[in-house]
Amino acid sequence: MDNAISVTGLHKSFGRTKALDGLDLSVATGEVHGFLGPNGSGKSTTVRVLLGLLHADRGTVRLLGGDPWRDAANLHRRLAYVPGDVNLWPNLSGGEVIDLLGRLRGGLDQKRRAELVERFELDPRKKGRTYSKGNRQKVAIVAALASRVELLIMDEPTAGLDPLMEATFQETIQEEREQGRTVLLSSHILAEVEALCDRVSIIRNGRTVETGTLAQLRHLTRTSISAELAGPPNGLSTLENVHDLKVEGNHVRFDVETAALDRVLKQLTEVGVRSLTSQPPTLEELFLRHYTDDRAVARK
Amino acid sequence: MTTGTMTTTTTRDRPVRVERRHHLAGTWQLVRLALRRDRIVLPIWVLVLGLMASAGAGAYETLYPTQAERESLTAVMANNPSVSLIYGPAYDLSTAGGFTAWRYGTLVATFLALACIFTMTRHTRQEEDTGRHELLASAVVGRYAALTASVIVAGLGSLATGLLITVSLMGAGLPAAGSVAFGASTALVGFVFIGIAAIAVQLAEYSRTANGIASAVLGAAFIVRAVGDASADGSWLSWLSPIGWATRVRAFADERWWVLALLVAAAVVLTGAGYFLLPKRDVGMSLIPARPGPAAAAPGLRSPFALAWRLHRGALIGWTVGFALMGAMYGSLAAGIGDIIGDSEQSRQMFERLGGADALVDAFIGMTALMVAMIASLYAVQSTLRMRAEESAVRVEPLLATRVSRLGWAASHLVFPLLGTALLLAVAGFCTGLLHGLRVGDVGGQLPSVLGATMAQLPAVWVVAGLAVALFGFLPKAATAAWAVAAAFVLLSMFGPILQLNQAVLNVSPFQHVPNLPAAEFTATPLVWLTVLAVAFTGAGLAAFRRRDIG
Ligand SMILES: Nc1ncnc2c1ncn2[C@@H]1O[C@H](COP(=O)(O)OP(=O)(O)OP(=O)(O)O)[C@@H](O)[C@H]1O
Ligand SMILES: [Mg+2]
After folding, report:
1. Does residue A234 carry a pLDDT above 80?
2. What is the ipTM of this complex?
3. Nearest-CA distance from A295 to chain B in Å?
4. For the CA of B548, the nearest ligand
5. DSSP secondary structure string, B458-499?
6. pLDDT digits (tens, 9 = 90+) for A173-188
7. What's the CA-to-centroid distance between A204 and ligand 2, angstroms?
8. How far is the CA of A42 from the centre of ligand 1 (A)?
9. Is the CB of A16 under 6 A from ligand 1?
10. 3-state class of A276 per DSSP?
11. What pTM, to 2 d.p., does this model score?
12. β A182-186/A251-257 pair status
């Protein structure tokens, strides 16, 4: 399958700040791709390079088969962008902004526009600053979704939406996916990522640290095990994939890398297991590890 | 940010006296923040405006060393309306002090007023526009704190300018009384416009509008006193303008101290009105509530230019009306020039030597065209920098993420500095020509001639616009330096000749190269060169903009 976006070895510095430091990203056509990373890790910078707003220092960037820096205006007919911080023109109403951006993109689906305005409970008659942050965000979302484009690039589109609107947003993105659209979705909301994304890329300090499906990523994390054994445990501490082992008599507690779970359980059953609780990794833990743990970078 | 509203709610429950003090809470921190943000701009304007006059005073002795030269200066300048139009009334040109007060009084006061207006809006309305004010308001900042802090900072700037004027003039050996009168009247004009800006920021919905309202008042004050100073029977008009009051303090020419009281009273009343209006509106909102707009865009709103038109429309209409009024007033004045000059025997001789009534009228029209062009160059800078404002406000990115190209977007805005300025010159030239033609009964002859003299200035205005585009393209973060460029050209053209600056220095200003129509012979060559330069600057700026990062 073709890639809608493929980025390799992307570098971008602002003066002395290294915003991107060899970033890789590939988004297959038709998938919803989550783009995650801590604050300041370079997500917005990547998006702005993809839109041809910033000039990459080094690396290759392909977007819809073209070069976003050279063919910007042409490629932009085929995509829609929702910025993280939506600033509207003070003297234009929300409805005017939706229509203007849609027309500048090459047309918009009036039926879909009306439906989206309804579903997002947006008052299109308000002007610029009289919108709340969430409502400004909705203006940009409606403007993007009402255009029939192949690719949606969204930089934290739901920051500021209330839970109801968040649900509406997720529904609409599911519909877009069914229509075969490609979505690059940068987000800090893990539930949203879990609900929507086929694959995710996690970046840190301008570099990709992990990429794959959520199932694959889960595989890389640890399960917590607490067990009461028939006798004293032996050999557990020598196993490579066991971490934070605590032994109190016949009771053991430890974390194990999910990939090594089978081997470790065999070791336990050899001694004899009286009771066992296991806790699968939560998504939060998974991301927190990537966001905070330097080992994640080192392992790459 | 709900904390801001919470703060106000809690203060409502408290006794009134506590509430008062509470409303000013945080003022001192805001003053320090503002001083920090203005730590470069503020000292620059204080130094430039504060030292300009004493530099001129120093030049007087060198330029006009003998009594005879001073008398001839008086004869030529003192009663010449086309000169009073710009500089104000000349009370006594036989002393360095009198000369300085006349030459610089009006201008320094006008620029100081402008600096005060911008300082006021920057620390009040603009903070609300950007949402930074909410951030601060949540940190226990009283309702009147931002306004008070801006008044204090702009007031400090005015005060420092006034003091520097006084001290530097006394240092240059001028009489103390006149130096104090000059410094005080200038500083007080600053305070009056602090008051006007304090009102404007309550009325307007955005800092841009607030700047527009206050600057329009300043423009009106300048023009009203220009007409008053230049006409024989309308001199009472100058008493309607705070800038007129400042000159009527008569520094170095038998000071009239009581006029200062007018300025003080106006400053107090106007600032008080700003404080009175402030609680009548919500943070971030204006006194005039915003009306809802259409639910869908009109069919025409489908191109970058259609958007640019929406963004520039209000300002362009305002400027056009201003230029029409300015042109009409100059036009109605031109014919009367001979009457005013013919007062004394000495000036009558001067008048003959200068070529009689026709030559004087022509010189007046030439001066009018130059003035109009210099003011139009300010519009050129303002409308060009709108691009940078849009970029800083992150409103360009969503547009450039559509099929709008960078050049297409820039072109949609550049229509205004390039063709908008042409419109302004045409309107001003047309109104001047029409009114002058009507007065002398020769519309058919005067209208084209005056219009042509005004339009001839257009290439010089374009050069200023081109430089602004170049700054925007190459040094976006320093794009506002375009204001300094425009101001430098204006100052060079206004003060360069009287200071007898080197011709090479004078030639830096594009206005220096425009033939002084209708008196001089028309030559196309300089205009072609200016146009070529303007095109080169604009082209280079656009090329740089195409290849640079946005943001
Ligand atoms: N125009 C700029 N000039 C200087 N530095 C910049 C600029 N834009 C971004 N940076 C820096 O580049 C780095 C990456 O920023 P970026 O906005 O891409 O982060 P992000 O991942 O989007 O963060 P967030 O989750 O907070 O949105 C940061 O260190 C930021 O300070
Ligand atoms: Mg970001």
Report:
1. no
2. 0.83
3. 34
4. 1
5. HHHHHHHHHHHHHHHHH-GGGTTHHHHHHHHHHHHHHHTTTT
6. 999 999 999 999 999 8
7. 13
8. 5
9. no
10. strand
11. 0.80
12. unpaired
